[in-house]
Amino acid sequence: MYIFLFLCYLVKANAMMLHFWGYPSSEEESKSCTLNTAADFQGCMDLCSGMEWCMLSYGNDTTCILCDIYTISSITQSDSSKGIEIAVKVDVQNSCPVEIVSNVYTYKLFSSNAGVTRNNALASCETYGGWLAGFENIIDYNYIFNTARSLFPTPLNYQYLTVWISGLMKTSCQDDTGTANCAGIKAFGEFPNQNNQDLYRFPPGYPNLTKLHNGYYQRGLQLTWSQQLTAYNGMVTNAATEFACNGEQKICAFSYACGILGKA
């Protein structure tokens, strides 16, 4: 029996552990989990329960393996004959909440075969009560990057595809390429519910703070992945918010990441 995990993120401490016999279905996904030390499996469960980013623990009284959120997509339920226990962090109803409530932060990724501007992407996120989402840890980054790529599994006739993420150039940094206050990520603001932008890595030549030939500034941030070229793969670039593609039609945004925080 397979149990599929919803992509929910519990950000408060009122979660509990749902404990049963089972193990992650994918050996490949399990490679992202970490081996830890615990006196017994109850101690292993306690370790996961006390860690903000831990989604589940599995093993037995001599082995403790912890998995972060978004690393495991499904679980195989078994019995005692396998000797493997698993405990999944859930809310007090023993499930990922169906509705967005105060302790849940949810990512939603959307795509458009016609391309999408940042302005339209932001407007769409706002209809869900959300915003353009970014990443402040490797779990968030991997989820946005891998999910966006999975929406377009067949390479298209572009150098790169991109997904719009949080980050908008500060007005004070337009045309300013020399001051420390506008160097790199400092040139951008609008990072809702993010404490850092340490994983926002720019390729050489970016961010490009100059005005385009058509008079528009490249104000919005995107996460980029390879199609025909590879140098920008997995890196952040900036582009004009009014267009889906750059001037040469070689880098195009076909998706965007929304973040929705439960209402208090």
From TrEMBL:
Signal peptide region: 1-15
Alphabetical list of InterPro entries matching this protein: CTDL_fold (IPR016187), PAN-3_domain (IPR006583)
Pfam families referenced in this protein's UniProt entry, alphabetically: PAN_3 (PF08277)
Residue ranges annotated for the PAN-3 domain, each copy included: 1-118
Keyword Cell division: no
Keywords, in A-Z order: Signal
Protein name as it appears in the record: PAN-3 domain-containing protein
